[in-house]
Write a sequence for this structure.
């Protein structure tokens, strides 16, 4: 897969500050998200709360880089929390 198809990650001071396709250029990326992640309970709770908030407020509207939350990638939800 070409690097332009990847979901890139930018990190500053040990924290993810940008993640996703078309959000981070290959030049500023520190790596590529490969689809594997481990979350703390508090991070999982925050992700769950964000999901429910977005579904309630605008379920069919564009979400991050996706046409809707239903079509979003995991990186879109992570970027919502960053």
């Amino acid at each position: 897969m070409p690097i332009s198809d990847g979901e890139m990650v930018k990190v500053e001071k040990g924290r993810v500050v940008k993640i996703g396709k078309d959000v981070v250029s290959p030049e500023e990326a520190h790596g590529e998200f490969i689809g594997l992640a481990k979350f703390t309970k508090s991070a999982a709770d925050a992700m769950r709360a964000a999901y429910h908030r977005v579904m309630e407020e605008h379920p069919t509207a564009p979400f991050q880089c996706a046409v809707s939350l239903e079509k979003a990638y995991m990186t879109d939800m992570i970027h919502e929390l960053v």
The mean pLDDT is 88. DSSP finds two helices and three strands in the chain. Residues 3-81 form one domain. The longest helix spans residues 41-57.
